[in-house]
Amino acid sequence: MKELSIFVDESGDRGGQAKYYLLSLVFHAQTNDIRNMVQQYEQSLSAANLPNVPFHSEPLLNGHKEYEYLSLQQRKKMLSMFASFVRHLPIAYASFSYKRNDFESPERLTVRMKRDLTNLLVDHLDYFQTFDDVKIYYDDGQDIVKKALDQSIGFVLSKEAVERRKTSMTDYRLEQVADYLCTLELADLKYQAGEDGNTYNKFFGGSGSFKKNWLKQVRRKQL
What we know:
Blueprint: E1 3-11, E2 20-29, H1 35-47, H2 57-62, H3 72-88, E3 92-99, H4 106-123, H5 125-128, E4 133-137, H6 143-157, E5 162-164, H7 169-192, H8 197-204, H9 207-219
Parallel strand pairs: 1-4, 4-5
Antiparallel strand pairs: 1-2, 2-3
Protein name: ABC transporter
Pfam family, one: DUF3800
């Protein structure tokens, strides 16, 4: 029995003030065991004398929370190491971005999101139909995303998605991968709009460097 796990991450709260709202989904076939890859990544952190903490892009880029006492060079090293980890993972992903002022209300955004998720499933129907079970991993507060995904999966695939809570280190790391991908897709939007700012430039370089060394690498995994 083949099982597909979907890990979900959001950037920008739907009802808040952020200019952009992004949704990223990471798809992982459970037949592809990544435990050794996770272990190697964590060993590389230890070898570099860096803390083995959960990867969270926003605090890392801004030096907040668990990254507060790390230097810029240490944080850049951690970002590069996580990027290398992601490049080698047997995953696929999809990301959707929305400008908040294009929608009159959070409800309108939710309707659009459901439509986009349904189109994704239809466009890649052959891929999704190879799986017997679909399990979705959410963080708290993603109830609207959960509803949109559940309805889309039920409508297109005629099967019920099972909600799961993260229980293993591989689950947590894949959720962090979704966070990383959200950050890169948001950075791409801001580079295109000339809103990149000094923080992005410190970690990614200019627009050309970002596209070549960061975005191009992850887009190879885009569904």
